[in-house]
Specification:
alpha/beta; homodimer; 8 strands
Chain lengths: ~250, ~250
């Protein structure tokens, strides 16, 4: 049974903690967070601390922290014998290089406190500074998920941008759809099946193949009538995305 | 048993035809299409024709045609006693006004030939020129789906724009994600769970609530590092959507 100390008490830390509660070969022995209030959830479940000098030795230190906190906390950790990991998509492996064994365990998923996550489907991107460390991270990752990927810091940086496109920006387009419904007294639920089918379609067809709509068809009548209904940012987004679809699918004609 | 003639042989016509094969009170008696090749799928299943003057009388004429074909075909239909419907999101009810009973049955879903569709979940937007016609369309719609909405031409026009945002544009952002993966030799499958969870999240939380990411957090370090990786349309899209998220969530602070 290998021991883990989790640093952080946010969404990723909480979901990882829950996921480890079912693990056979790993056990979370402590959760550290600089703010005690956020530790409430953990208090009856595991030893907690708000002081870095109270952090206990463990085989694995898992830094599930905000990007900017990772180097700061890493600097202050005194036990250097642990395998030290961070969970960030946007932070290179090298910020942990003061530790002999270090690596990354980046769960590529969107986490909210309010929604449970089935970790067994979450892609885990792993990277390490040595074969030994990589093997240990792979073991850890396999306890949590069936989707393990070896991803370099360079690839992870690109993947983080891709995730912004397919998740944060996509969600913003949902917000635009919700707003259009609200302005026209239409319940937003009417769009749910379309949203779910559009997402699930790309597990069958590539998105390039799956593209439909007036921009792809270059249906100028419809595009004009849509633009007449739009203003501000929403109009700019419609224009830019329509042009971009033209540019992509035009090239392929 | 009410009789239906379907006009058109594209995605919507095909999926509607399949959905009606299980109906109790309605039966498709003929499929018309100007191009005979597209009728191949229907030929062993139902009477078909490529000539408008061979179209048989029926209780319902269902025009599952491209937007521009609807007024042209409507003009040429001689039997005026049928209830005449179109299935378009972007075409007003009034293009069918030469028929005493007319209406709209707009299925708000994305259809591909390659993917089966469970019609029972598809939202059907209905509209008609009279109470009698509306009752008949509602009966028809209830045979196909549990999600029936009374939607005016004005609302449908807005809904069609909303659908472009949450489906066509969203799919284009998936394409960008796929391209970023390809350029970095990462399998696109790694993004599937994130895409599916982002979609399914908004059936629980409103998209405004569900918004996460560097743009929402105004994490300028990350945004800068992402922009450095991007060029062309993709960079413009990143900038515009980031700004729009700022504008929306800034207002709410």
């Amino acid at each position: 049974m290998k021991s883990i100390v989790i640093f952080g008490a946010g969404n990723v830390a909480t979901h990882l903690f829950n996921a480890f509660s079912g693990a056979k070969n790993f056990k979370v022995t402590q959760v550290y967070n600089h703010n005690g209030n956020s530790l409430e959830f953990f208090k009856n479940k595991v030893n907690t601390t708000t002081y870095l000098n109270e952090v206990v030795p463990a085989e694995i230190y898992l830094l599930a922290l905000k990007d900017e906190a990772i180097p700061a906390i890493a600097k202050k950790i005194i036990h250097r014998e642990a395998l030290v990991l961070h969970t960030s998509g946007a932070t290179p492996l090298s910020v942990l290089e003061k530790f002999e064994q270090h690596g990354v365990l980046y769960p590529l998923q969107t986490f909210s406190k309010k929604r449970p996550v089935d970790f067994s489907n979450v892609p885990l991107c792993i990277e390490a500074n040595s074969e030994i460390a990589l093997r240990e991270i792979a073991e850890l990752a396999e306890e949590l998920s069936q989707n393990i990927y070896n991803i370099s810091s360079e690839q992870r940086k690109a993947l983080h941008v891709a995730a912004v496109f397919v998740s944060n920006f996509v969600n913003f387009l949902y917000t635009e759809g919700e707003e259009i419904c609200r302005e026209n007294e239409i319940p937003f639920e009417i769009l749910h099946p379309l949203i779910l089918e559009t997402a699930s379609k790309i597990t069958d067809l590539s998105p390039t193949e799956a593209q439909t709509g007036p921009a792809k068809r270059r249906d100028m009548e419809i595009i004009k009538s849509h633009l007449e209904q739009l203003h501000g940012d929403r109009k700019k987004i419609y224009q830019l995305l329509t042009e971009s679809i033209h540019n992509l699918h035009g090239k392929k004609l």
